């Protein structure tokens, strides 16, 4: 299973012979340096670049290209080599971009020789830099690991080599740029989107033809560059008396344009990918959908193995779990769930477009009839009105029939996919949890709940988010979080919000390997003691829940110091210099009853953790009512916007980043009376005890 790294995170390497695959939307230079224990380069002979592409155990590309494959044999490395740094740079002296901030974020992946991906890293956040240290393979206690670096240099390769202690930095950088400039005629351009080997699903078509105002067929689209923006949309949901919240994207990925149709236009706020709910849903037409993994821009993964008999003519294909492309079953299931989400969004948009067209057509026909006074006399007007209403009903019925057909097919697929999901993707009532074992690898994604639309209330699509988390979570315990207003008792809503937070935290603990995830809790008044009992009684928490102002200050100070230490180590190029015994696992802080027990310093520390923590493995989960913190005014608006808002009860505050549907979110809760949570946490606690 692939581990997607964030900056500063490391991962063990179990293979010696590897490939490092680089994918970018523009030709770039790829190279590597060999360093000693301190990361210093002893000379130009320790640098592999297009002019000298081969070193012992290392071979790089000979030209600038949009895609690269670097060969690495760790067993062939000289004993003096302890670090292998992978370098990326934009060519100089040629026409093209001069800084990474103007090109799509490069993606670097470490794979085995058979193509099995070990880790991947998207180098986001670059601006003026023209060279970057992407990854670092380093030797630690006789074994090799890989670390995501992402250290950029505005001065290009010269500054990069100087920072690594190479005396001839400027001369070597000039030689590399000259060699690349001479070979740019052979540079490989960015490849077009692949369609071979991808599972294609026929999208729902509206019940309108071109002569009825429907969309006409279009040509094939061009490539869609990856979005280097935040994975979720910006929102600032308010309580009573506040403006209505902007819907937020439940998925972190931009929907790729379907083949034969450009992607619908959406409006974004704050550069974070939030869909504007006021943007009209564009009519959609049928066409195959590219199911290549949105974050993998290199060679297409192998197609799924044929496991179902071919469909009979005139009959829909039988659904099969894992019927999507991917390097592993988990990735195929992830892509299949994303495809179901996309299909439901598409067919619903087609239905709504058809109904809107039928309404506008009927109004237009009635206006034409009533505009002539003569048609109002006798039965002529009544006949015209009945005819317009009959045409309207016919169009709506056609659209509804197409929608019902597609929903039935998706429902059949969901009934096959749901039982096949691994624990990280499964509901708590899935039997897969009864055979749960503590995993040895971090999964690709995590289920946070279910999504559905009003037109398909019985069809539930799993809401999966990628791991590690790139944003904190906010469980809204305010009264505005109830869709139908059925929860008016604030005490019950607070209890349910805390139970939701515990279910999410338990799932995170369950899907991470032993010792790779640590949970802290701040409960100043002790009001969450009942909901927190499963975490406390099984001993999976790092420490008992912190209470009172002193407990709040102590936990926040400790986690803030952790963020500072990791940031300084990474920025200083010495991530191995952290104090002995430093806990390198992902950290989660659950905060209940905010802002009770928080002073101004604690509030600022909380905002700091929300902004800077995810990049270094410190995540925040707030259980709070925004109205109770209204006294801070706009000071806390950035905090709420930085978190993904979830609700303990069904609510329609999430929007897809494609056509802006308002999706109803339902949290993933443990069934009443079930002991599955206790059983899973008991296994997690036992595995943690053995690990430590």
Question: How would you summarize what this structure contains?
Answer:
This protein is α+β, with helices and mostly antiparallel strands and 692 residues long.
Task: Give a structural overview.
The protein is built from ten helices and 21 strands. Helix 5 packs across helix 10. The strands form three sheets. Strands 1, 2, 3, 4, 5, 6, 7, 8, 9, 10, 11 and 12 form a twelve-stranded mixed beta sheet that branches. With about 700 residues, it is α+β, with helices and mostly antiparallel strands. Helices cover about 30% and strands about 20% of the residues.
Low-confidence spans: 185-247, 251-298
Give the end-to-end Cα distance, rounded to a whole number of Å: 24 Å
> Largest sheet, described in full?
12 strands, mixed
Class computed from helices, strands and strand pairing: alpha+beta
Helix content: 25-40%
Mean pLDDT across all amino acids: 79
Shape designation: globular
Q: Please give the radius of gyration in angstroms.
A: 28 Å
Number of helices: 10
Q: How many strands?
A: 21
Q: Please report which band the strand proportion falls in: under 5%, 5-15%, 15-25%, 25-35%, 35-45% or over 45%.
A: 15-25%
């Amino acid at each position: 299973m692939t581990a997607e790294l964030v900056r500063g995170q490391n991962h063990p390497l179990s293979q010696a012979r590897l490939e490092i695959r680089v994918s970018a939307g523009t030709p770039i230079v790829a190279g590597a340096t060999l360093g000693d224990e301190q990361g210093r380069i002893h000379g130009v002979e320790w640098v592999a670049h297009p002019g000298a592409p081969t070193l012992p155990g290392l071979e790089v590309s000979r030209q600038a290209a949009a895609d690269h494959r670097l060969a690495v044999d760790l067993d062939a490395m000289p004993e003096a080599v302890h670090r292998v740094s992978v370098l990326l740079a934009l060519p100089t002296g040629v026409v093209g971009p001069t800084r990474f901030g103007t090109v799509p974020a490069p993606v670097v992946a470490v794979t085995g020789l058979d193509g099995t991906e070990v880790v991947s890293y998207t180098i986001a956040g670059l601006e003026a830099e023209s060279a970057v240290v992407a990854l670092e393979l380093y030797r630690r206690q006789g074994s090799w690991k890989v670390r995501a670096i992402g250290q950029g240099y505005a001065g290009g390769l010269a500054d990069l080599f100087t920072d690594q202690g190479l005396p001839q930095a400027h001369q070597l950088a000039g030689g590399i740029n000259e060699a690349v400039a001479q070979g740019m005629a052979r540079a490989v351009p960015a490849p077009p989107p692949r369609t071979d080997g991808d599972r294609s699903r026929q999208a729902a078509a509206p019940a309108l033809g071109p002569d009825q105002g429907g969309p006409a067929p279009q040509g094939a689209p061009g490539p869609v560059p990856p979005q280097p923006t935040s994975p979720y949309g910006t929102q600032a949901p308010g309580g009573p008396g506040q403006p209505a919240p902007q819907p937020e994207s439940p998925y972190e990925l931009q929907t790729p344009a379907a083949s034969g149709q450009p992607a619908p236009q959406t409006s974004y706020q704050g550069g974070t990918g939030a869909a504007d709910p006021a943007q009209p849903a564009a009519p959609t037409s049928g066409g195959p959908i590219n199911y290549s993994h949105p974050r993998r821009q290199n060679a297409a993964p192998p197609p799924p193995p044929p496991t179902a008999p071919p469909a009979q003519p005139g009959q829909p294909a039988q659904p099969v779990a894992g019927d999507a492309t991917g390097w592993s079953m988990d990735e195929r299931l992830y892509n299949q769930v994303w495809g179901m989400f996309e299909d439901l969004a598409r067919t619903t948009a087609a239905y709504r477009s058809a109904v809107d067209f039928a309404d506008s057509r009927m109004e237009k026909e009635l206006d034409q009839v009533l505009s002539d006074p003569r048609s109002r006399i006798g039965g002529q007007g009544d006949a015209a009105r009945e005819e317009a209403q009959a045409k309207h009903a016919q169009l709506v019925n056609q659209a509804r029939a197409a929608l019902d057909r597609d929903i039935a097919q998706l429902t059949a697929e969901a009934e096959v996919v749901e039982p096949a999901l691994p624990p990280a993707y499964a509901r708590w009532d899935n039997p897969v949890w009864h055979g749960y074992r503590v995993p040895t690898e971090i999964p690709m994604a995590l289920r946070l709940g279910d999504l559905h639309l009003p037109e398909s209330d019985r069809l539930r699509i799993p809401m999966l988010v990628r791991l590690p988390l790139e944003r904190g979570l906010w469980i809204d315990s305010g009264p505005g979080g109830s869709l139908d207003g059925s929860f008016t008792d604030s005490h019950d809503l607070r209890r349910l919000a805390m139970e939701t937070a515990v279910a999410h935290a338990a799932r995170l603990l369950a899907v991470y390997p032993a010792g790779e995830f640590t949970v802290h809790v701040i409960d100043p008044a002790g009001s969450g003691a009942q909901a927190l009992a499963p975490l406390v009684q099984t001993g999976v928490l790092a420490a008992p829940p912190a209470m009172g102002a002193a407990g709040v200050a102590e936990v926040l100070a400790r986690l803030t110091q952790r963020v500072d230490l990791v940031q300084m180590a990474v920025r200083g190029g010495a991530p191995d210099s952290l104090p002995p015994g430093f806990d390198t696992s992902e950290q989660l802080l659950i905060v209940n009853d905010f802002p009770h027990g928080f002073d101004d310093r604690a509030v600022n520390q909380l905002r700091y953790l929300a902004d800077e923590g995810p990049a270094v493995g410190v995540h925040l989960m707030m259980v709070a009512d925004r109205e109770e913190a209204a006294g801070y005014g706009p000071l806390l608006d950035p905090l709420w916007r930085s978190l993904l808002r979830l609700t303990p009860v069904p609510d329609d505050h999430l929007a897809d980043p494609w056509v802006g549907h308002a999706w109803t979110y339902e949290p993933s809760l443990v069934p009443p009376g079930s002991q599955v949570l206790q059983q899973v946490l008991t296994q997690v606690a036992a595995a943690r005890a053995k690990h430590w």
